[in-house]
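Let's see one such:

===
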Amino acid sequence: MMLIEPHRFTPYEAGRTTSVTLPGQHRSTHVDVLRISPGLVLAHSHFSSAQRHSGDIRRPEDQVILTFNFSGRMLLVDPRGHAHEISGGQAWLIRSGGMQLKRIVEKGEGCSNLVIALNASRLSPALANMLGHNLPGPMRVRRLNLPVPGRAMLTALLDQRTDPAAILRKEGQCLALLGHALEEVAAHPQQGSETRNPCLLVERISALLCERLAEPITMTEIEHEFGLSSVTLNQLFRTRTRETVFEHLRRLRIEAAERLIRQTDRSFTEIAADCGFSDASHLSNVFRKRFGTTASAWRRAGKQNQ
């Protein structure tokens, strides 16, 4: 497995740029790297869709990474085996603490990201303390709600200019993006912290689903609520419940309906509405598939056994 250490091919001098082609990779796979200042680096990565990319990446212990996805999909797998999907125009803040992350880009997908790497030693003591408190080491990966930089900013950051005025301008742009990221972390210090406790995360999502049994709910809403991708959420659920999130939701709905059918005299239309089924006919069809009998027969049997 190839180990990539980006700091080893980052230009040493501020204002210098380089384009790095990784060994054994397709020719269209490369990383454009700009050293903005001694502790601040900007990189634009391009992974070809022509082949699968898999390797380990390790950054210096004190680096904080802000990543914006432009296109495609990349998986980052941390040492605990948790997969974080970088895709869909998302922003992520990563503090690896010098630990290795596995990077995977599947064939046919490709990926392009903007990466800003800042040495935490450049931060003021107050910011460094806040970062350490809200992103405790040694490994922390957090999805943000920041928008991807617009076309104008992206063009300005990647315009290849390396004169002192341009470098000063790019430093300000990168620090502004990092500032927005740190503001979000400071404003919502606990968001995403349950990923350190997958069981708690599954419990929280299950509780949300129970609250929303009667209402439509989308995977996008759940992603936004918990700050994790559908891939990661379904992976956590399969590991702990052997179900996807929506398989779990369907089970919760039919189990709630079964209790109401068995324990009450409410109409099937009312029960269907309360448990998230479109109508009594939908409930009846699902009930028959699950229990092998009609809801009416189940209710009669329940009363006979009382």
Summary: The chain has a mean pLDDT of 84. The longest strand covers residues 63-77.
